[in-house]
């Protein structure tokens, strides 16, 4: 079976790196896997750009501008990413020229693949959900809004109060374009899978929770003293690490961590130090109360990330919303305890063993100011017990397993075997094709595409001449 992955990039952003890891895991499992991206940053020969030309950068910027063009009517929109996927970039032709038996979609925004082109790929699809965009009206994370479960409209991301706004139009356009689409979805966490199942668009589409693949040869416990020496960190300090691609995004919770650490009380004699990596928000402080802050910048390779987590006593993951994030899995694989909220892969965790749970933390607090979130970080981050007993911490139960990850001396088997799980998830080329779920299709008299759905074989539809053919 020839599997073609489609992603905006291979290394830029957590979703792209996760997609690239899935591709590498499938190659290691012996699959015929190919990776098409809008922006190639690696030197991997198995990764190809959708538009390999000298003008690729200009073309990518043009795609982003065209995708954002409808937003000009919403000057009061919130400063969060909103994608419409209305303009066709021509990527569909490149994807089909690779002769795929199955297309695996990942993060395909910034105008890479139009929503109508997805329906015209004419092959079975697997879609890895790295955020909520595939089943919303345009936002990538819905925050406190749940209108994607009904039909969108009055979108807070757009600053709109109209029921028939751009978000309602985008969701309606997705429903029309993807009617009858053969599709399965994959989510990295139950947190995201539950939202997909509750959505108006993907409610009837099966969603499988698969652990994120991780390379145990890279992300493993490394000698703490050596890791600190290589990174130039104080070998005697109580180190707290906080990392993300874009720490300035509100959903990443840098403000919650800052407010909590600024008022945290550490044990006598402790010398705390917060070190961060990734893109910091503007005017990031160099000190939070008694906690100095050191920024390592953007870490370009996985080994340096593994060194950062191995050097730390505890990792903070204060995300308000997140599909994963990857840093949680990476920190746990390095044997570093994680303090975070029940979001993403930490959803469904059990409390820290032997440590009291703060009375203000009951699931996800509804305090818009984030006081309960800050109280949780303030409670856990300074505890010396985390450093002395890294096994005693919040451990997320991996999907389809009775074990737990976290605080272990090696990555959890569910993450080590994720490549095998993903490989089994695809239909075998030596067996009859599996039945893919279709999005609900409304009855339409005279709909040739619906009538052709009863035919066997590989179907193609010629729009120019209005007839179908088998191949």
Describe the structure.
The chain has 471 residues and is an alpha/beta fold. It folds into 2 domains: 2-211 and 423-440, Rossmann fold; 224-410, 3-Layer(aba) Sandwich (Rossmann fold). 27% of the residues lie in helices and 16% in strands. The protein has 15 helices and 16 strands. The strands form 3 sheets. Strands 1, 2, 3, 4, 5, 6, 7 and 14 form an 8-stranded mixed β-sheet that branches. Strands 10-11-9-8-12-13 form a 6-stranded mixed β-sheet, with helices on both faces. Helix 1 packs across helix 14 (418-425), helix 7 packs across helix 9 and helix 8 crosses helix 11 (371-380). The longest helix has 15 residues, at 14-28. The protein is globular, with a radius of gyration of 23 Å.
Shape: globular
Mean pLDDT: 77
For the record, the CATH architecture of the largest domain stands as 3-Layer(aba) Sandwich
CATH fold title of the largest domain:
Rossmann fold
So how many helices?
Answer: 15
> What is the end-to-end distance?
17 Å
Number of domains: 2
Radius of gyration: 23 Å
Strand content: 15-25%
SS class: alpha/beta
Number of distinct beta strands: 16
Main beta-sheet strand count, sense and barrel state: 8 strands, mixed
**CATH level 1 name of the largest domain:** Alpha Beta
- Low-confidence runs of at least 5 consecutive residues: 352-371, 384-422, 427-471
Q: Helical percent range? A: 25-40%
Outline the secondary-structure elements.
Layout: E1 2-9, H1 14-28, E2 32-39, E3 47-49, H2 56-68, H3 91-97, E4 102-105, H4 115-119, E5 125-128, H5 166-177, E6 182-187, H6 190-198, E7 207-209, H7 224-231, E8 238-246, H8 254-262, E9 272-279, E10 287-288, E11 291-295, H9 302-311, E12 314-317, H10 326-333, E13 338-340, H11 371-380, H12 384-388, H13 413-416, H14 418-425, E14 437-438, H15 448-452, E15 459-462, E16 467-470
Parallel strand pairs: 1-2, 1-4, 2-3, 4-5, 5-6, 6-7, 8-9, 8-12, 9-11, 12-13
Antiparallel strand pairs: 6-14, 10-11, 15-16
Helix pairs in contact: 1-14, 7-9, 8-11
